[in-house]
Inverse folding.
């Protein structure tokens, strides 16, 4: 990555600034709950859509091999389905990727 | 009128579980950021000034690939707009005597979890309580990023490869349980996943920068389901990126 310090700080300012304003402006200006049903619904659904599109399909490319990523993804989906905590789901996915890649590297010699 | 509470010490105590939860998520962010070529101090500064998980994660590739300011700003607006709702709610919770300047300070770290804890308190809340509540989570978020960024530089490659999936594991743990309980949420998630694949694999569409994909897919899927399956006021009102199960 070739990001000079000036560019980094410009990006940082934009990022932190937008987020800060989103948090602060309502704290100063809005005295009543938002009643509009469509807006409330939209803001309810957005985090799910956003987290999903950030995960699928990027997760497949997050490790050294798509196969290890698929193994980790399946384990994460199953554990999440059974309501295991964030940390357990995440660490289990990491452990699965680790094992899968060790197998691929030293047993099957495909990595 | 319920009595207000304003103890810095109680705020700190209520914030510690959030702080502990943040350590692991921000550790994963630290690994992620240095993986994209960020310096350790850049990753840490990013966390300290933003205090947001999904927003920061989306920002890193945009910054690393030289994306436009507009793309970055619009991405943050889309991903973090939920905080506006939470701030509206926190605003009703604050003691009316809390000044504008203090509100400007408190607004810095209204996260899903801070919102969750503050809304569960009885009575109005003062500046000292809120700043106490926010202090340790900010610390945990920043220190966790530092640890992750350092680990990302030190650990052998095969460990880093395995840690690469960590942040996605957390997102999956956030999304799957509500999608299991609610058909509209499941529909919204599947729609977003399908559109995400389209934008990755269809020639032409795969030229769209990552930030815009998040905005387009996020708003399309959410709008579709806000129209098809609008929520009732009686439904639980806190949208969340879900870390509250840690707090």
């Amino acid at each position: 990555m070739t990001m000079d310090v000036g560019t980094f700080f410009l990006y940082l300012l934009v990022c932190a600034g937008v987020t800060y304003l989103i948090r602060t402006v309502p704290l100063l200006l809005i005295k009543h709950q938002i009643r509009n049903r469509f807006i409330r619904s939209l803001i309810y659904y957005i985090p799910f859509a956003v987290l999903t599109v950030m995960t699928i399909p990027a997760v497949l490319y997050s490790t050294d091999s798509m196969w290890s990523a698929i193994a980790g993804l399946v384990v994460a989906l199953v554990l999440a389905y059974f309501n295991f905590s964030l940390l357990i789901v995440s660490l289990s996915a990491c452990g699965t990727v680790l094992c899968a890649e060790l197998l691929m590297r030293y047993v099957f010699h495909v990595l | 009128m319920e009595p207000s509470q304003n103890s810095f010490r109680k705020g700190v105590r209520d914030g510690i579980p959030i702080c502990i939860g943040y350590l692991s998520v921000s550790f994963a962010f630290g690994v992620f950021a240095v993986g994209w070529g960020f310096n350790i101090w850049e990753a840490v500064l990013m966390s300290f000034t933003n205090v947001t998980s999904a927003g920061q994660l989306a920002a890193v590739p945009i910054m690393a690939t030289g994306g436009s300011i507009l793309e970055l700003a619009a991405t943050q607006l889309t991903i973090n707009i939920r905080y506006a709702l939470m701030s509206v709610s926190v605003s009703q919770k604050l003691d009316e005597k809390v000044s504008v300047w203090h509100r400007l300070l408190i607004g810095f770290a209204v996260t899903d979890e801070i919102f969750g804890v503050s809304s569960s308190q009885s009575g109005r809340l003062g500046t000292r309580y809120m700043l106490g509540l926010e202090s340790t989570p900010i610390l945990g978020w920043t220190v966790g990023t530092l640890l992750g960024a350092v680990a990302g530089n030190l650990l052998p490659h095969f460990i880093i490869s395995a840690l690469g999936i960590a942040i996605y594991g957390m997102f999956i743990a956030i999304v799957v349980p509500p999608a299991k309980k609610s058909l509209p949420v499941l529909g919204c998630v599947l729609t977003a996943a399908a559109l995400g694949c389209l934008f990755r694999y269809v020639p032409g569409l795969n030229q769209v920068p990552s930030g815009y994909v998040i905005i387009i897919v996020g708003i399309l899927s959410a709008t579709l389901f806000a129209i098809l399956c609008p929520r009732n006021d009686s439904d639980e009102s806190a949208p969340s990126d879900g870390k509250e199960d840690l707090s």
Summary: Chain B has twelve helices and no strands. Chain B has two domains: 8-161, 182-236. Chain B touches chain A through 113 residues (CB under 8 Å). The CA atoms of residues 55 and 79 of chain B lie 6 Å apart.
